[in-house]
């Protein structure tokens, strides 16, 4: 056994433990609490505008994402996109509910691109809750946020 073998096993055990903690926390936490908690992990050194998102899939599992900025601004990732990517990476493709939170004067709305990303995995009546860190919330649907959405039906003749 080489010197790094015990460290490698130790790291594997830590990763398994962290994975279980994350899964348990996601199940036990509300969508609001999950979004607020992950918001703290946002990488926003340029704007200092941290956003957290949590999505509930059709199975009931919660997936989270936070914004990740890059010095080359267009290369950043929105919180909603991160949460959706986590859901898809886990093998799920249907959204049941979305919660987005940021520290701003009025509830934060998903950007246009994220509205389209949400619509890709949600029917028009899926609830979207937008919130501030001060507790203000506004509830709508993805159909309300993105009326006339471009969807797969538009590709029918392709």
Structural notes for this entry:
The protein has 158 residues and is α+β, with helices and mostly antiparallel strands. Helix content is 37%, strand content 20%. It contains five helices and five strands. Strands 2-1-3-4-5 form a five-stranded mixed sheet. Helix 4 links the parallel strand 3 (95-102) and strand 4. Mean pLDDT is 87; it is low at 1-10 and 24-28.
Averaging pLDDT over every residue, what do you get?
Answer: 87
- In whole angstroms, the N-to-C terminal distance is 58 Å
Helical stretch count?
5
Instruction: Characterize the overall form.
Output: globular
The fraction of residues assigned to DSSP E strands is 15-25%
Strand order of the largest sheet: 2-1-3-4-5
Evaluate the radius of gyration: 18 Å
Largest sheet report = 5 strands, mixed
- Could you tell me the number of beta strands? 5
**What portion of residues is helical?**
25-40%
- Coarse structural class: alpha+beta
In sequence order, what are the helices and strands, one letter per element? HHEEHEHEEH
Low-confidence stretches: 1-10, 24-28
């Amino acid at each position: 056994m080489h010197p790094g073998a015990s460290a490698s096993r130790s790291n594997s055990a830590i990763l398994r433990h962290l994975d279980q903690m994350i899964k348990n926390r996601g199940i036990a936490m509300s969508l609001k609490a999950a979004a607020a908690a992950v918001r703290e992990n946002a990488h926003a050194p340029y704007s200092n505008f941290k956003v957290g998102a949590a999505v509930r899939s059709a199975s009931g599992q919660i997936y989270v994402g936070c914004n990740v900025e890059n010095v080359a601004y267009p290369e950043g990732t929105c919180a909603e996109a991160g949460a959706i990517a986590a859901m898809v990476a886990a093998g799920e493709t249907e959204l049941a509910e979305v919660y987005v939170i940021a520290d701003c004067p009025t509830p934060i709305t998903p950007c246009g691109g994220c509205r389209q990303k949400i619509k890709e995995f949600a029917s028009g009546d899926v609830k979207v809750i937008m919130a501030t860190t001060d507790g203000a919330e506004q509830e709508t649907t993805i159909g309300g946020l993105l009326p006339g959405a471009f969807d797969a039906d538009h590709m029918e003749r392709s």
